[in-house]
Here is the input.
Amino acid sequence: MMKFLTVSALALIAASAASAETFRWAGKTDPQTMDPHAVNSAPVLGFLNNVYEGLVRRGKDMAIEPALATSWEPIGDGEGWRFTLREGVTFHDGATFDAEDVVFSYQRASSEGADTRSWFAPVSDVKMVDTYTVDVLTKAPNPIFPDSIANWMIMDKGWAEANSAGLPDKENGNFATLNANGTGAFMVSERQPGLTTTLVPFSGWWDEVEHNITSATFTPIDNPATAVAALLSGDVDMINPVPIQDAARVDQRDGLKVIRGIEARVIMLGFGHEADQLKYGAMAGEKNPFQDVRVREAVAKSINVDAIRQTIMRGSAEAASQLVSPAMRGYSSANVDRPAYDPEGAKALLAEAGYADGFSFGLKCPNNRYLNDEAVCQAVTGMLAQVGITAELDAMPVQNYWPELRADNFDMYMLGWSPGTFDHEHPVRFLVTTPNSEKKLGSWNFGGFSDDRVDELLPMIQSEIDDTKRQAMIDETVSIYQDQHAYVPLYVQPLVWGTQGNIDLTQRPDNFFILRWVTVN
Here is the structure.
């Protein structure tokens, strides 16, 4: 990804402004792929929500609503869900959408090489009932299943197979990496990875058009100052995010506005739980201190989250005690407290664990994924140093970061998590459950945290219909991962978008930017 926006790229942006209905926006991260099943990350899923669609989708208020399915209902006594599909829908190439595409998309999105595979852990099969009806069979009653598939995007079976893209290929790529053929409101007209991606309206879209865009061009700009300069000069109509430190300046500028909110994303630190030895720093090759819960608690007590909120986030973020924010379903009111900032208590815990003189290790962080991510990691490094823990910080672009985490190349790392279902079950399934490829569980649990009781509770949480009983199970799960300090939740990330004054749009707490709600006045 470009570190700075080049003159040619700026010229390309400016050249796209042919009419008042042309829209240009910029973000920190270019979507890695146009394949909706290859990479399970917000930059990819958020972007592709403009191009592909699922059986259901989330509205402006985040409520689930019909999309490629017009209705759904439970089958039998918790056997699964029957979806009635929308008729008369076509893909961008003119092919007709039907049940075969849904079955194919399930097989593709749940395949071994799909990054979305773990979404289908509760599913035993997807069957075509007739041309416009499919049954999704679940291994146990799953009352939240429709909420869990808002980002499962449907691909055209014929198009994928004809272009040798029958399976996703995250590592090497295939035709679907650079090309797209969805049913969504916009089509990809040009894709230059790392430079620009241009979308145009799909004239055959089945739904009512609310926007007035004739062309929309996205440009990744990972240098914050360059992004702000592009907004101030009018070269772009919107940037996401506005750097916290520049928000007031942008807001005070005539003709510009700042749109603020709180994202559903919790920023946290993770540990290499299953690694027996440290991999980085002066003590590389020695016993891994993070396998001791006292050391993990010491890390939690060492970090002054309020200082990070006030200085780096300028008061915009909210402290987090759990892997979800209070706005999410299943938030545990019984476990609202987070470890207090207590450096002396941290030193005592380190001494008790046999590290009175501290230790050194490697901290991996992205530098263009989350708001002020590298600055936060630098602050964490300084705070840990005050209790005798020396962190060797390695910050890198996100396209290099995920491969490092998946290859277990870390001792401790930063992660942000926004639950796609807006339910606490989501991070438990992805981040806290013991990794199990066969069961499609724990696919983002990079450190390998494992607890037998959590593994036992997850399927019970997924199948319990009684909200009171379900919440009690979630409360128990939260108390376990908090007591074990499986992660160190830091804060809920703020949303800070900047636009030209003539732009109307909708900001959702999942930080997905939906073009079909944009109006250029």
